[in-house]
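Q: Hi! Curious about what Maltose/maltodextrin transport system permease protein looks like structurally. Here's the sequence.
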Amino acid sequence: MATQGAPVKYSKHSPALAMTLSLIFAGFGQLYNRRYIKGILFIVLEVSFIFTLGRFINYGLWGLRTLGVTPLEDHSIFLMIYGLISLLLIAFALGLYILNILDAKRNAERLRQGESNPKMKETIRNVWDRGFPYLFITPGLFMLTFIVILPILFTLSLAFTDYNQYNSPPGNLLNWVGWDNFKKLVTLNTWSETFFDVFTWTIVWTLVATTLQIALGLFLALIVNDPRVKFKKWIRTVLILPWAVPAFVTILIFSAMFNGEFGTINRDLLVLFGLEIPWMQDPFWAKIALIMIQTWLGFPFVFALFTGVLQSISRDWYEAAEVDGGSRWQKFRYITFPHVMYATAPLLIMQYAGNFNNFNIIYLFNEGGPPIPGKRAGGTDILISWVYDLTFEINQYNMAAAITIILGLIVTGFAFYQFRKTRSFKEEGNM
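A: Let's find out. The predicted structure is below.
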């Protein structure tokens, strides 16, 4: 006897069989479920994929595995790109294939429970109502895959090859070398000394320059926010002016001012004290100059940020602290500073992440110089500017890619921490 509410003819309808048929060939499960139009669409999609992209994917996977077998005829870089595109196409196809299997299972379960297949109009309406966001997100995701993800995968792949100025296609074929490039960075003296020096300076640069610009911005915001200060609007306008000037213009002007031969800092200012500092020639003084310039460039944004937050703090809190006998330092420590940090911490974290990859100031000031004998990087190069030099100056693409991966992991850690501190990736019900 059939179960109550389920027609006899569907009581033995098997979801497992529907899934198996869809696994054998996309659309077969839908035909088994009597969803003929949907089944035909899935069949057409798989047949079209096989006949139009099958040969390309097969060639791409071969090229990614071998990177070519005949110099001058096979180009390893093109083969690598074809292979990566093939992997992405396979990922999209697998996604649709899994969707086809799950759809067959759901429809089979509905039939087994006695529900009838929806009409075509009802199906289209359900797709529009429930799949509307996905329909509009899909083109963007598809473009993002080939504009962002593909270059990232290409960089990741280069880090595991021997692609450099002495081994470049099409005259030479590339080879997969595993983790050799990363081992060179930490074990081979010619690379490890430079890598650790640049990495250390990158950390010092990030911490010192960013902390100074935040401290200066907070200090000025506290002064301007003091009730005793008049002409607040004019003072804020003047302090934000450095932010209005394009950063590259400011950096180039400072580069000229710090020039040891004709720069105004040495010739017009320090000469009064009998000093002449080699800003461009000595790595130490070049680093000091860069930190000062970045402090000048970065404090206006922090100042504007803190000014808005300070104005949102209730005056009642300060009045209550005064009644309790709180000093200025205690009010700053227990009221102002915690409130400011709570409201701006994610943005301040991103200031550190931004300076970690601040290529513009390093390159525009003195192109990462001055050069240091025996080192593969300039005296003020940070990781991102060193990657630029390795890529465009000496064509060490494999090592540049390896450093880029390390750089990306560090910045990703910063970004992940920042997102954890905001509501950007929290569900609506968990706000």
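A: A fun detail: The chain has 16 helices and no strands.
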